[in-house]
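Changelog note: in this version the structure field was regenerated for every chain. One regenerated record is shown below for reference.
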Amino acid sequence: MWNIKLIGALLIASLITLSLSGCARSNKTNVENKTNSEVKAMNQGSRAADFELKDLQGVNHKLSDYAGKKVYIKYWASWCSICLAGLDEMNTLAGADKDFEVINIVSPGFRGEKNSEDFKKWFSGLEYKNLTVLLDEGGTIANKYEVRGYPTSVVIGSDGTLVKKIVGHYNNEKIKSEFKDVK
């Protein structure tokens, strides 16, 4: 049988918890009152780590350059057979009309990937003209995004939120469907 003192203590604790939760201040900002320094999170998730990486031609790319756009980032390696089997599809997706950007990242000198020069030479012999491939020397950004295997992809909303991390291969239709609810 329940002890009256125990029931009373539980009731008082519940009432205190309920009253305090009503006092919590919301961190949400009203769109109309938003200042330039505030960022309105439109998607659920954490802020995607910004990066600055060079593409195969030596041009710098920053994730922040894509602010206001949705971004699909695919991490892959030249030795990964699943990754290589999906390159035709990725090239098609990168060249297609869609509402998000496609970026590919490889990490020379990290987890068995070729060094930069060997990778560039190898990739130059392939016919993937639509792919933007960035070089993450030593896997610094791969570590920030906790890439543990290849292929791994991330879906980033236009507000810079890392919405989802995808391990394994997704075909283009599945990738497009991942962006349907991303703002």
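Spot check on this record: The beta strands are 46-47, 52-55, 60-62, 70-75, 100-106, 133-135, 152-156, 161-167. The longest helix spans residues 4-21.
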